[in-house]
């Protein structure tokens, strides 16, 4: 990922956007600190639409019996 100072990003925003659309995001820094990233809208949508853990579990293709029941006994009750 290309790292660009804010001052340079202001001067070349159009080129940064063109590169982001082409698949090359840019990291913008200010006073040496990482502040922002320029990336394509398609990449933003891909990252923003990550399914939640709940959605992943709901999409599990198995049958109810595929996952064993949880052992609810106390660890102190278990014998080794």
TrEMBL record:
Region (Disordered): 61-80
Chain intervals with Basic and acidic residues compositional bias: 67-80
InterPro entries hit by this protein: Antitoxin_Phd/YefM, YefM-like_sf
Protein task: Antitoxin component of a type II toxin-antitoxin (TA) system.
Homology family: Belongs to the phD/YefM antitoxin family.
Name listed for the protein in its UniProt record: Antitoxin
Originating organism: Bosea massiliensis
Lineage, uppermost ranks: Bacteria, Pseudomonadati, Pseudomonadota, Alphaproteobacteria, Hyphomicrobiales
């Amino acid at each position: 990922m290309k790292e660009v100072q804010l001052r340079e990003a202001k001067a070349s925003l159009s080129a940064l956007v063109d590169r982001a659309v082409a698949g090359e995001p840019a990291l913008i820094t200010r006073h040496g600190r990482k502040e922002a990233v320029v990336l394509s809208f398609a990449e933003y949508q891909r990252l923003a639409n990550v399914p939640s853990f709940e959605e992943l579990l709901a999409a599990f293709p198995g049958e109810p019996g595929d996952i064993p029941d949880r052992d609810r006994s106390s660890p102190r009750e278990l014998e080794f």
